[in-house]
């Protein structure tokens, strides 16, 4: 077993290093490492067919429980989390349909028009919109459109878009923490631990909402001077792009809006209806493709298959740590340090998750930590939900601290740089680290007060 | 090969590759693109060129940057991509030009009119040139050459399938020390003229 454990750890560390080095595309890295785990660790070292089958987890897809879990949320699983992958794939298809119809650009322009193109109200409105959109849609898409529109408006209104982009990125990550589908770590936590959308909204959602108020005030305070338009120039509202110009096709726009509304309703009510997120993702994708007609193939081609394959490989590698008992050892270590003190466990989980997520991709980290907190809850006899909310807030918010911590940060700073607004580590961290610290601190204190 | 001529010149630091490129461009009455691309890009983006110069022809920092799909927050990579797009657009417009560095032999590999050159040089010649140009000691010049060549190599190999300086990736590789700058320019111009004549014959 020791050889299998060492091999699983070596593969896991090698995967992380190769992802950071970015010499080979990350889905190739996780798939190769996953294959090595399944064949080398399970097949050769452990000679355990069950470990292979459990990690591949293919059987779960054909069980009715995977699609419909009446009376409860979906089944807890180990190994490849197919529910997460199918849900993310479904949302990708839906989001591509919405983007093609001009939904996001329309929404941004509408909001800008409502606040009469005034920088400070626009700043607050875009932060709130970023938060709300990221609750249901992946933060990459949210920031891709918000940052592009922000730059477009900034050029017309002659203000510096960098403060707005930085605050939008932060709020997108914060919004992602509020729901089960907002951020990949939450989808992994939710599907692995059988939590519903409402479970997240009433717990992390509540914390995120409180933090949003502090975040808006914080960013307003630090950026108020930079938001002033040059020479206090008056804005010619007539020259601004109108929301309806953003709509590329009215029919497609109406359909994609209805599909999005249905997706939100299905997600909010999935604990009551018994429909699993895998089911919702599959149905939403199917409806989007059917209603797209001849553009269905085009939408399918735009789906980010590399990210889906990245997830498949990642879950296999984490499965290696799980099957060889490494994650139990980590859980035991945390248990020993905290000596059964729930507050200390929460503090360790939330801060370690935050620091780790600020430096490395938060998806592999959360996928690794889910089995750890499961094991910790059993061994220490503490409430698993409390640990899950700490993990969720730590991984989702910790990623906001640095330009490489979360996907939204990379996309936002990339869009800005391509337009000549270079956001270096100094500029980014100066604004984001205090905000991250503040939100993590509030989250921890809230978890202490409510659950410990 | 059509009438468009695109001459990409890659070079070792201190090999006088840039000077050779300038002379060829002057003699053949072609526009030269080098760091001057940055001026045009800076103008387009409405930023100071000094801001872009910091990231020009440099490899990305693997620890401090990340890629998500088509997006990266490495300014070195973003600037490289903007420059590649710029070079491609210029070539697509039908313009003939000489381009120094910027992985141009890879970026323009699909254009029939491409002539790719790599200029190398003897170490003592490169040292002498850098010591004189920047008023450096031998040790300092050696370190500077080594630093620049390593950066160019990493930058090139990051964006190209071929290895920097590998003769298989270029039409012609030449040691500027053998014939000095004038002689090297003459040889290269003869080669270019032969290629142009051949293309006209084939047309």
Q: Any overview of this molecule?
A:
Chain A has 452 residues and is mainly α. Chain A contains 23 helices and no strands. The longest helix of chain A is centred in the middle third of the chain and has 27 residues. Chain B has one domain: Rossmann fold (3-Layer(aba) Sandwich), CATH 3.40.50. Chain B is globular and about 50 Å long. The N and C termini of chain B lie close together (7 Å). The model of chain B has no long low-confidence stretch (mean pLDDT 91). Chains A and B meet through α22 of A and β3, β4 and α4 of B.
| Percentage beta strand of chain A | under 5%
Order of helices and strands of chain B: EHEHHEEHEHEHHEH
Count of extended strands of chain A: 0
Radius of gyration of chain B, CA atoms, in whole angstroms: 17 Å
Q: What percentage of residues of chain A falls in helices of 4 or more residues?
A: over 70%
SS summary, helix count of chain A: 23
Q: Report on the biggest sheet of chain A.
A: none
CATH architecture of chain B: 3-Layer(aba) Sandwich
- The strand line-up of the biggest sheet of chain B is 2-5-1-6-7
Which H/E pattern describes the elements of chain A?
A: HHHHHHHHHHHHHHHHHHHHHHH
Overall, the morphology of chain A is globular
| CATH domain fold name of chain B | Rossmann fold
What is the approximate shape of chain B?
Answer: globular
Low-confidence stretches of chain B: none
Oligomer: heterodimer
Low-pLDDT segments of chain A: none
Count of β-strands of chain B: 7
């Amino acid at each position: 077993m020791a050889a299998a454990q060492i091999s699983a750890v070596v593969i896991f560390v090698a995967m992380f290093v190769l992802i950071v080095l970015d010499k080979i595309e990350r889905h190739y890295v996780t798939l190769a490492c996953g294959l090595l785990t399944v064949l080398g660790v399970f097949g050769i070292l452990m000679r355990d067919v069950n470990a292979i089958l459990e990690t591949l987890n293919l059987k779960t897809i054909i069980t009715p429980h995977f699609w419909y879990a009446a009376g409860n949320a979906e089944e807890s699983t180990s190994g490849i989390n197919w529910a997460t992958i199918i849900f993310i794939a479904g949302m990708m298809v839906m989001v591509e349909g919405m983007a093609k119809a001009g939904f996001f650009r329309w929404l941004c322009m509408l909001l800008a028009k409502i606040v009469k193109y005034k920088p400070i109200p626009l700043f607050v409105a875009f932060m709130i919109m970023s938060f709300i959109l990221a609750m249901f849609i992946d933060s990459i898409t949210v920031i891709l459109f918000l940052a592009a529109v922000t730059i477009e408006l900034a050029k017309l209104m002659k203000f510096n878009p960098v403060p707005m982009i930085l605050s939008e990125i932060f709020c997108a990550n914060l919004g992602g923490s509020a729901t089960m589908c907002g951020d990949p770590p939450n989808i992994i936590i939710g599907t692995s631990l059988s939590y519903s959308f409402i479970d997240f909204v009433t717990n992390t959602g509540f914390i995120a909402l409180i933090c949003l108020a502090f975040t808006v005030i914080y960013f307003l305070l630090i950026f108020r001077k930079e938001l002033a338009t040059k020479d206090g120039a008056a804005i010619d509202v007539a020259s601004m792009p109108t929301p309806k110009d953003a709509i590329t096709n009215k029919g497609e726009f109406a359909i994609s809006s209805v599909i999005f509304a249905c997706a939100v309703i299905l997600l909010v009510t999935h604990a009551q209806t018994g429909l699993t997120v895998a089911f919702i993702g599959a149905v939403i994708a199917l409806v989007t493709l059917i209603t797209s007609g001849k553009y269905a193939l085009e939408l399918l081609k735009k789906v980010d298959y590399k990210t889906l394959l990245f997830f498949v490989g990642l879950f296999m590698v984490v499965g290696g740590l799980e099957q060889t008992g490494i994650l139990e050892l980590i859980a035991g270590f945390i248990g020993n340090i905290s000596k059964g003190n729930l507050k200390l466990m929460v503090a360790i989980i939330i801060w370690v998750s935050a620091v780790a997520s600020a430096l490395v991709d938060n998806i592999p980290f959360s996928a690794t930590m889910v089995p750890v907190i499961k094991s910790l809850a059993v061994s220490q006899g503490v409430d698993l939900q409390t640990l899950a909310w700490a993990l969720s807030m730590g991984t989702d918010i910790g990623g906001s601290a640095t330009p490489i911590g979360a996907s939204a940060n990379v996309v936002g700073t990339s869009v800005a740089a391509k337009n000549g607004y270079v956001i270096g580590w100094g500029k980014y961290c100066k604004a984001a680290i205090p905000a991250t610290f503040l939100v993590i601190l509030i989250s921890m204190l809230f978890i202490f007060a409510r659950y410990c | 090969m059509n009438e468009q001529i695109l001459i990409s010149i890659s070079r070792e630091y201190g090999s006088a590759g840039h000077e050779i490129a300038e002379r060829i461009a002057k003699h053949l009455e072609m526009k030269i693109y080098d760091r001057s691309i940055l001026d045009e890009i800076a103008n387009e983006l409405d930023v100071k060129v000094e801001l872009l110069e910091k990231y020009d022809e440099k490899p990305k920092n693997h620890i401090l940057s990340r890629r998500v799909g088509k997006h990266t927050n490495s300014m070195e990579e973003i600037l490289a991509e903007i420059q590649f797009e710029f070079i491609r657009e210029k070539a697509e417009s039908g313009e003939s030009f000489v381009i120094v560095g910027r992985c141009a032999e890879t970026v323009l590999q699909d254009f029939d009119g491409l002539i790719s050159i790599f200029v190398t040089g003897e170490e003592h010649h490169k040292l002498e040139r850098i010591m004189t140009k920047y008023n450096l000691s031998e040790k300092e010049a050696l370190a500077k050459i080594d630093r620049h060549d390593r950066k160019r190599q990493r930058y090139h190999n990051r964006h190209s399938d071929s290895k920097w300086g590998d003769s298989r990736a270029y039409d012609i590789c030449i040691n500027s020390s053998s014939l000095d700058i004038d002689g090297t320019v003459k040889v290269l111009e003869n080669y270019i003229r032969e290629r142009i004549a051949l293309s006209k014959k084939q047309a």
